[in-house]
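Protocol step 4 of 5: obtain the predicted structure for the target chain.
Materials: sequence only (see below). No template structures provided, no constraints applied. The aim of this step is simply to have a reference model before the mutagenesis design in step 5. Sequence pasted as it appears in the construct record:
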Amino acid sequence: MSTGEWIALAVVLALAGLAAVLVLLVRVFRARKLLADAGIPLQNKALFWSAVVYTLSPVDLLPDPIYLDDIGFLMLALRSLHSACAHAVAARREKRTAPGRTSLTKDLQG
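Step 4 output (structure tokens):
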């Protein structure tokens, strides 16, 4: 491969990495709606905002054409938010269920 082909390949890979970062950043902002839920702990909210700041910050662990650190941090924030949301929903369901009765028995009894 010639030098021009290597440069073109590097540019394509850099653009693909940037596209992945942008997609994940959009997903993180959409997941921000989960933060309105009062059952989500503060640490998950802080992780969300730190992921956004880190992605937009010019200071990175890896140089900017390599977006693996940004992608990893955004994926960690998304995973943490979804886990916190699942725990909050489960906790709310438990609160709605009366002591001694499961939600299944409530559904069966009407």
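Step 4 remarks: Residues 3-31 form the longest helix (29 residues). The helical segments are 3-31, 42-56, 68-96, 103-109.
Proceed to step 5.
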